[in-house]
Amino acid sequence: MKRIWIIIFFSVLFVAFIIVWNKSYWSGLEESYVSVEKEKPHSYLPIDRGVFSGSERGLRYEEMPYDEAHQRSLETYYDNRAYDGAPPSIPHPVKEERSMGSVTCLQCHKSGGFVSKFDAYAPITPHPEMINCRQCHVTKNTEALFVKTEFIKKEHASVGNNNALPGSPPVVPHHIQMRENCLSCHAGPAAPAEIRVTHPQRENCMQCHVLKMQEVTDREMNTTKFSLP
Amino acid sequence: MKVATNRREFLKKMALLSAMTTAATMFPGILFAEDQVAGLEGLDNLEWKKSPCRFCGVGCGVLIGTQNGKAVAVKGDPASPVNKGLCCVKGYHSIMALYGKDRLTKPLVKKNGTFVETSMKEALDLIASKMSSTIKDHGKDSVAIYGSGQWTIPDGYTASKFFKGCIGTNNVEANARLCMSSAVTGFMSSFGIDEPMGCYDDIDYADVFVLWGNNMSEMHPVLFSRILDQRQKRGVKIIDFATRTTRTSMAADKSIIFNPQTDLAVANAICYELINKGRVNESFVSKHCVFKKGETEMGYGLEDNYAFNDKPALIDFEEFKNFLEDYTPEKVSKYSGVSVKDIKYMAAYYGNPNTKVMSLWCMGPNQHTRGTWMNNLIYNIHLLTGKISTPGNSPFSLTGQPSACGTVREVGTLTHKLPHGVVMNEEHRKFAAEIWGVPAENISPKPTYHTVEMFRALDRGDIRFMWIQVTNPMVTMPKLKRYRDATEKKDRFIVVSDVYPTPTTEIADVILPSAMWIEREGMYGNSERRTQHFEKMLTPPGDAMSDTWQLVEVARRMGFEKQFNYKEESHIEEIYNEYRKHHAGKKHNMAPYEVLKENPGMQWPYVDGKSTKWRFNEKYDPACKEGSEFDFYGNPDGKAVIWQRPYEAPPEMPDEEYPYWLCTGRVVEHWHTGSMTRRIPVLHQAMPHAYVELNPEDAKRLNIATGDLVKLTTRRGEITVPAAINLRGVPEPMQVFVPFFDEHMLINELTLDAFCPISKQPDYKKCAVKVEKA
């Protein structure tokens, strides 16, 4: 009886060996060919995905003294934008016209710092991962217009009137697309004085500051269901 | 605002913050936000609505902010699978193009050389009576409509139905003939059915990107950013294969420069190398491909009434192999300027079975006197290696206008086309006539004029009436002077529908003010077969009227009330639903109107509630035969064609008198002729005028510095342009480049009207020019 079990055991092993060996032999003979991958579902990221990026700078900012002689004002900050939320144009000459941006821009605009040539602190980009900078940011080479414009812009958000109750945390009065990283504009030496945050060390901005609802759509808040293609 | 936080203040603030935080957690977040916002002033009527971008063929989804009846802001639509929330500078400022001060708001009629304001009713009456009398005096084929890839789908459909179905002339063309007809004939000859098999999602899978004469960083920046994103995440390779050093070359991992026109030879050399190194996917080729050759030495269409018909003949693999013996990398390297090493480098990526390759191209191979061949040759490479119709393996032909695919190619606003099929085919004519509600005999079985020939016919007097909508041919036609003079001849009546004064409205007899983009409802179709709907968000200024409704009004006046019996408030929906009938079936079904309204676009074939991302692949495309694996169902035998296409020289090459090559193109800031983008302050201030790029060596020899005026002369004319040395792009020695957006420096006075004999698309990239310091 014991012998039968041993024989069965070894014959099972043998059969298994033949199957495994066969499989690996045949797959070895297959032509190498790129296999079709499974479709990745379209995922779009939540609207506040970038809030924590760059927050490691918060603590440093807290300790940084302000250089009042070189601080920007909200007015000059907005001057550079066609409407509230428009990508700012480049207010200084650029080094390399044939570059899409990338390192040329990021050497100053990634972590900021004082640039003596322009006598100013370089503002920090909220999206350093996007390196085709000049896809959206262009220089200004003339003051002249081709034809006058009658465009009425969306007014820039103003400061001091965004609290519902006295002392309640102000809402975020602008949409945050492409500028989800709050600290890049609201802290550090290049931040406009009026909108500088008093507590850059607190990372979870949207815990207290909620988005003004008119500034976003359901599409962005990810509350509507799409039958996505 | 210096913050001197002492311990007490800090604690106070902490207490305040934590109180608020607690409040926030106790109330449901959204309610809390609304409560807060209720107390805030302003922005109450700010609304965001989705639309595809007005400009290029990428078809980014944008969200338009409107307030008090005006468009006031733009952001990217994060729900759009095309751009996932990112736009380019043109897209972000696109709404400003609606508000130039010189917007056309009243119809204008030319009387004794000056334009006089009139009412819309009178202008439309005049157009209808002029059309009727021209048809009576000179026959049906003396009236023509010239539209564009910026026509919405309903615009193009109405034009086609009106001219082809009701009037009975095939004089329907569009400016897309000048930008992607080689892509169409490339698809038709290789696959028997138009438009890319793959989609933008291929970017997320491919390992190597080969850009064939495509300055993507400036021309398709949003897609280029998707590639750059993949490079950061997965380390993909970008190869820029071009005639000039651009931002794209600088961003690419490898820049390979070739001599103009020799892309034909290099593509063949890659095929030679694939076969020579045994990199052909033999099972794919034997199951899914056939080999063919066509006519050679076809000419260049420089003479009037030029005609050409290709005569395809089957060949076998051996013959194809023998043909390629002339294209060894060593032989090709001698005249292409591309080193043997670089040819082998590209072939190695295409040939490696474990590398997924996406080829991208646009005007380089298309605006080419052998444009159809060039498209065929890129498909050859992908077919020989079987790298097609699977995620990441994709020959992808890009387009430059928002609805070049959606309107011109799918609706078929070209002389030989119908929405489904071609005018030469009786079945197709009957099918269209039935949906249009006209007798089948109404549709003429003979194609008439392609774009260049249409303007030549206007010059000769064969065409007496032309209606131009949404395009600016008096800036874009090659060899411009001949065609401008044609419009000014006696007994020519030109109607122009546009939004701003342009060099084209100058030559008009009647100018109709059009409603632009989101001032009316419509649909665009982008390069990846995605149809996108936009609703009417704004009231058009003054008397401005959509191009669709202008056509409907004139058609009704000419007695076609029955065919154009649409209600004004719902005509776009009615027209779209009627149009869908032409494309019913698994191969080309369009998504229903309601689905388009809800979603950020849908890709045709839209079957069983799903977009088809990869055509011809059984796994993804329900139109494929069962068990076929790959089914190129455009051709009756289900097989794709690998074409034997040789290198042939261009019609005009630099010589002693005109020693430089002239290439034309675009810049990132401006779109097409700049009639919209130049009215956007940010864009005009960034790029105020055209320029000529010279190679620094040539500039030094000619003693030309940036800003100096340079006189450019060809056999067709001359212009003076400021020089730009070492700026946006650097051409090779003895080559120059000029962008075409500037109506005050019309480079097309200089270009040659030679075209690809198969596609009839002119070559704006190559002619001989003389360069002198002015």
Kindly state the number of beta strands of chain B.
29
Helix percentage range of chain B:
25-40%
- Estimate what percentage of residues of chain A fall within beta strands: under 5%
CATH class of the largest domain in chain B: Alpha Beta
* Secondary structure category of chain B: alpha/beta
Q: How are strands sequenced across the largest beta sheet of chain A?
A: 1-2
Shape of chain A: elongated
The separation of the N and C termini of chain B measures 57 Å
Report the oligomer.
heterodimer
Could you describe the largest sheet of chain B, including whether it forms a barrel? Answer: 7 strands, mixed
Please compute the radius of gyration of chain B using only Cα atoms: 27 Å
Beta fraction of chain B: 15-25%
Structural class of chain A: mainly alpha
Keywords:
A: 229 residues, two-stranded antiparallel ribbon, 6 helices, 2 strands, elongated, disordered C terminus, B: 774 residues, alpha/beta, Rossmann fold, Dimethylsulfoxide Reductase, domain 2, six-stranded mixed beta barrel
Describe the structure.
- The complex is a heterodimer of chains A (229) and B (774).
- With 229 residues, chain A is mainly α.
- Helix content of chain A is 24%, strand content 3%.
- Chain A contains six helices and two strands, in the order ααααββαα.
- Chain A has helices at 2-29, 58-63, 74-79, 103-109, 183-186, 218-221, and strands at residues 113-115, 120-122.
- Chain A has a two-stranded antiparallel sheet.
- In chain A, a hairpin with a 4-residue loop joins strand 1 and strand 2.
- The longest helix of chain A is centred in the first third of the chain and has 28 residues, at 2-29.
- The termini of chain A are far apart.
- In chain A, 28% of the residues are buried.
- The model of chain A is unreliable at 223-229 (pLDDT under 50).
- Mean pLDDT of chain B is 93; it is low at 26-41.
- In chain B, helix 4 packs across helix 23 (547-557), helix 10 runs parallel beside helix 16 (371-384) and helix 19 (451-460) packs across helix 21 (480-487).
- Chain B has four domains: 1-40; 108-178 and 414-565, Rossmann fold (3-Layer(aba) Sandwich), CATH 3.40.50; 181-297 and 316-398 and 635-644, Dimethylsulfoxide Reductase, domain 2 (3-Layer(aba) Sandwich), CATH 3.40.228.10; 660-773, Beta Barrel (Barwin-like endoglucanases), CATH 2.40.40.
- Chain B has a seven-stranded mixed β-sheet with strand order 5-4-18-17-16-6-7, sandwiched between helices.
- Chain B has 27 helices and 29 strands.
- In chain B, a hairpin with an 8-residue loop joins strand 1 and strand 2 (61-67).
- The longest helix of chain B is centred in the first third of the chain and has 20 residues, at 7-26.
- Chain B is 33% helix and 18% strand.
- By secondary structure, chain B is of the alpha/beta class.
- The chains are: A mainly alpha (229), B alpha/beta (774).
- Chains A and B meet through loops of A and helix 1, helix 2, strand 2, strand 3 and helix 8 of B.
